[in-house]
């Protein structure tokens, strides 16, 4: 890898996606979106339905082709790549989707699912694919003995871990999480977020984390991009966006998020601390 | 057009809705989905039923309405103004459903019949229980849509569900539930499928409507933040059992069970400061 | 309004399809059938006579000229031959049968009432039986009624209808003597006789279709009954009847209506086997006889009329769909 210290891992500029609505009208799902992303960094992309956040993420993954704009990965333009060059790019960018039961082939075994990207990329793995699969399962907290099972035999959180294992089997630089924890129970969600953070720490992954839940995004993002009706209304470091939002829409969004009564929260915290000091005093 | 109010039952004994020892099993499958649930709902008050998937919270609402799937065995007691609902024949339950006890479901798009106008579906709820001509019922539907703050109701009453946005569709469902002025509203994850700004509007609307109609509410959700705002008392469920119950303040300020604490700890907060790995090649 | 441009596009497509069908039919008969002139002439024919007939019919012309003559004839009528022996065929002319000496279209039209009576009566029967059978099966899914009905319907679909026709005739006419042997009388003369004559053909024809519709309705209704809006209907306190007939049936009917339109139109081209077995002189029997005697213009004429009916039906069905399904009719937000 020979790009200098100032080239970000990913640079997206003026990204536009238009869909044909009728014979004459075009619909702009994404309107002039741009951002940078460094290695080992997470960009949270937030917005409500119709904001274009998923479309943007999928364009970066080249699952959808942009109408115009540029995507630069490791200093190279990948916006219009095709064929072998595109496949090479895909080895570096993987996606984890929202619903593992519909995004993972239910007729395949876990082994087939996790090893598929390795096969398509034609990677040679010392020890063979089976070993790589078991290692990947271990890394995400799945029992490697279950590699012959099918996704439907796992709980929601575990099935999502299969999706994550599949994404990291090829050791990508960038993983796009498209509402990856939205369908999970809150306790499982917390575990999967922990896992994602740990994996980032160990393997230097970068994430584009698309979510509608702002509180969740706060748990994982270094920087946040706020989208509305296809446009990027505000972006910045996490704390700046959450604690000092500039754009009116961001403020509206943040104020709409339901919060647990703060009085009750502090009452609980002080009791817990009180109990701690009380017990440590014994 | 004034909504006609159903006469209050006289000689009311006990609470509006009293659930005691409710247990639901599926003998053929050998599973127990609800195990000894107890709570009371008074008019004007909201009980929050909180739990993750598989907790049995949705099943509880179906048990109260008598809408459990085939093969369910129910024990315990569910009484409405002293009248026992469990074991009631369907013909008797039908008179209560939509009239005295109404339900609001999670996904308004799939919960409304795409082949009929929203006005028809709202009016249908009214005509089933109050009768009246089609024109009368249409007027009632328009008024109900106005009550839930759908703009341009006179025109939109003839629109189809797919012509509304998600938030507007949920308002239609609320209008449909309220049209006979029920005593009890059961809301099963009513805002889970909605955008956060829309969710805020719908929750405000539901609270205002509850104030003006005096109805009691059973609010089912997995979202602790939402329930803390909405509920007077909370029942925390896990795998069919009650883990903890009490006033909202009690549950949040001094939670006693480990499960409740775990849920609270796992719930992401908007002002959390989380330790993240340091990005490479420095950013701002 | 997006409906009008859509419909005009469909109309144009239908016209093009019809032209293509006319061309294809003409081409097939042109290349694959034996010399029609020799056929008309008969056994004792001299080559001169054959040639004369060929001249009269314009059969010595190149293919495209013949096709053009045919196509023009549909709009403007045509004359076969010239001078005193010319045969006039007034517009719309889809052919002239020299075997029987009649305008093909006139012949077909004279046979239509029988075919329409047959198709319409069978349609009423199969819709009633099919839809109610399917509904009952869906509601009583898994019970003996359901399984029995589906087995009977499987039989109805797989048994060839000439077999059913013959068995039914044998049973009802010969063995049980419940019905007289079908002899056709016009409705205006003898309504009860008319009804008795058509009853068995109706049953035979309806059996096959009713079976298909029952299965289709059953499948659609089972899908619909699992939808969330059914749960809402129950939660509103609706009685079982409106839940079933209003909320469950309505969505299930839409695909059936479109199927019905096309299938009924196909029948207007003649239920060949049924008509022949029961001796009804409808369009189907006409085609059968023409095939036997190799009367080309008639065979071609019936083919064209049948194709025309189906193309029109297709267009109407598309129109109906846009009316029946609100999601197609009105653009969503």
TrEMBL record, chain A:
Keyword Transport tagged: yes
UniProtKB keywords: ATP-binding, Nucleotide-binding, Transport
Classification via PANTHER family: D,D-DIPEPTIDE TRANSPORT ATP-BINDING PROTEIN DDPF-RELATED (PTHR43776:SF7), TRANSPORT ATP-BINDING PROTEIN (PTHR43776)
Protein name: ABC transporter domain-containing protein
Entries under InterPro entries matching the protein: AAA+_ATPase, ABC_transp_ATP-bind, ABC_transporter-like_ATP-bd, ABC_transporter-like_CS, Oligopep_ABC_C, P-loop_NTPase
Signal peptide: none
ATP-binding among keywords: yes
Family: Belongs to the ABC transporter superfamily.
GO MF, any single term: ATP binding
A Pfam match: ABC_tran
Domain of life, source organism: Bacteria
One of the GO BP terms on file: transmembrane transport
Domain ABC transporter span(s) in chain numbering: 10-254
Automatic annotation (TrEMBL), chain B:
Location(s), subcellular: Cell membrane
PROSITE patterns linked: ABC_TRANSPORTER_1, ABC_TRANSPORTER_2
Membrane topology, from the record: Peripheral membrane protein
Residues covered by the ABC transporter domain: 17-264
Pfam families named among the record's database cross-references: ABC_tran (PF00005)
One cellular-component annotation, GO: plasma membrane
SUPFAM superfamilies to which the protein is assigned, alphabetical: P-loop containing nucleoside triphosphate hydrolases
Keywords: ATP-binding, Cell membrane, Membrane, Nucleotide-binding, Transport
Source domain of life: Bacteria
MF GO annotations: ATP binding; ATP hydrolysis activity
Primary location: membrane
UniProt keyword annotation of Metal-binding present: no
InterPro entries the record matches: AAA+_ATPase, ABC_Ni/Peptide_Import, ABC_transporter-like_ATP-bd, ABC_transporter-like_CS, P-loop_NTPase
Membership in a protein family: Belongs to the ABC transporter superfamily.
Designated name of the protein: ABC transporter ATP-binding protein
Origin species: Microlunatus endophyticus
UniProtKB/TrEMBL annotation, chain C:
Gene3D superfamilies linked: MetI-like
Location of this chain's protein in the cell: Cell membrane
Coiled coil: none
Domain ABC transmembrane type-1, residue spans: 112-321
Keywords: Cell membrane, Membrane, Transmembrane, Transmembrane helix, Transport
GO aspect biological process, one term: transmembrane transport
GO cellular component terms, semicolon-separated: plasma membrane
Membrane topology classification: Multi-pass membrane protein
Transmembrane segments: 12-32, 116-139, 151-173, 193-211, 256-278, 298-324
Superkingdom of origin: Bacteria
Similarity field: Belongs to the binding-protein-dependent transport system permease family.
PANTHER family documented for this protein: INNER MEMBRANE ABC TRANSPORTER, OLIGOPEPTIDE TRANSPORT SYSTEM PERMEASE PROTEIN APPB
UniProt name for this protein: ABC transporter permease
